[in-house]
Automatic annotation (TrEMBL):
InterPro entries the UniProt entry points to: DUF805 (IPR008523)
Organism: Pseudochrobactrum asaccharolyticum
Family annotation (PANTHER family): INNER MEMBRANE PROTEIN YHAH-RELATED, INNER MEMBRANE PROTEIN-RELATED-RELATED
Domain of life: Bacteria
Pfam families: DUF805 (PF05656)
Protein name (Swiss-Prot/TrEMBL): Uncharacterized membrane protein YhaH (DUF805 family)
Amino acid sequence: MRHYVDFEGRASRTQYWLYTLTLFGITVVALALDLIIDDQSAEPAAFFTGIVVLAHFIPSLAITARRLHDIGKSAWWLLLMLAPGIGSIVLLVFMCTPTKTGENRFNTHIGETQSFERKPHFEGTEQSSLHQLEKIASLRATGAIDEDEFKQLKANVLARSSL
């Protein structure tokens, strides 16, 4: 919530979808409260749901704009919401698009700092290459990494040890 109404910068896919999931949960609770309080009149009351929608309208636009920045698109793409049907589909595809790593015109290097690759953590440089290779072999034996990852990590350890 630090970037409640911040339209600048970038938001990763994870940040966007966690916000969306949280907002969905809050909306469901508000809707349930509205249904509990409803007096069964002809017009259903939507007091709590209306408050949630109004309170999160600008923040939803802000995180969507930051998500668009993360994939290298301008926030003006938000205007696609005005096109019925196809606009929402295009925005959904954009929201599911992976982060563009490295610099872009909106901010720098978000993708490189939020990488989700599995990398073994070796504490200190005093560990021998043999010990590192044994750790990698045990990860492969337990199924934590596959054969291709094993080969790549092995090559990295051997390349570092030859320096």
